[in-house]
Each structure stands twice: as C-alpha cells, then as structure tokens.
Amino acid sequence: MPRLQKNDNFIDKTFTILADIILKILPTSKEEKQAFYYYRDGMSAQSEGEYAEALEYYYEALLLEEDPYDRSYILYNIGLIYASNGEHIKALEYYHQALELNSKLPQALNNIAVIYHYQGIKAANQNKINTSKSMFSKAAIYWEQAISLAPNNYIEAQNWLKTTGRINTKQ
Prior knowledge:
Blueprint: H1 10-25, H2 30-47, H3 51-64, H4 68-84, H5 88-101, H6 106-125, H7 129-149, H8 155-163
Helix pairs in contact: 2-3, 3-4, 4-5, 5-6, 6-7
C-alpha cells in the first residue's frame, strides 16, 4: 500500500516518519490507520501532479475513514483536483460535501467563491449580464463566510468585495 515517493525531500521524509511513529503510538483502529495512509499517499500524488492516482487514494481513504472532520479534508482535496482539472461542477459538489461535514473550512468557502467569480467573469465576457451578476453575488456570499472564519486571509477577495461595493458591513 505505501506509495513510493518520486521526489523525496527532507520535509516529506520527516513528515512520513513522524506520521508513522504517531500512528504506531496512538490507539487507532486498523481502518483509521489505513485511511490515513491512503490520505497521505493521495496528498503525495497530488503534490506531484499525479491527479488520477491521488483520486484513487482519496476514494480508498473515504471508504475507510469514519471521522467527519477527517472526511471533510479528503473531500476538500478531491474538490481541489477537480477544480484544477477545470471540472468546476464536480469541484463544487465535493467542496459542499466537505462543508456539510466541517462548516469551518474557509479554504473550501474561498474555492467555491473563486469558481463563482470565474463563472461571473465568463458570463460577463459573453454579455450574459444577469448570470454574471448572480455568479458575482454568490462569490461575495462565500467570500464573506471565508473571511469571517479567517479574517487575515483572502486579502484579494476582501479588496474585491470593497471595490465592488459588495462588502457586508454586519461582520
């Protein structure tokens, strides 16, 4: 099951060794340990741009992982892969599933906003004004939520909200 890392660097090796030690010490079930190994291997494959391989590992981790918090991160990473491949509808589905399990995931909220913003720009370029306004409004809603969870992050989104007059002053 362990993935052979092609670009083993010091940090990756150190993380792997520490994670293995912690897993041996912690009182976790065999399934939880396997789920973690799949998740770790998925992250490794994803970082190397091996998205199909990463998805296989993440789907295996989902079959084994029961903890909602941990599942939310697996779902989030699956969403990242679909978004990077331009499959925005699938990415949105996985981001929303992640948020159902963990509503305090600002990066998922941000990525949803980014997709809606992109769709808004695309619609504007096609002179679909109503669609564009709708997409920008959705982006604003998700960015406001992300910013409320992580006020020091997403500075560009904060600036966009201010310059477009979409900032919610109730925060």
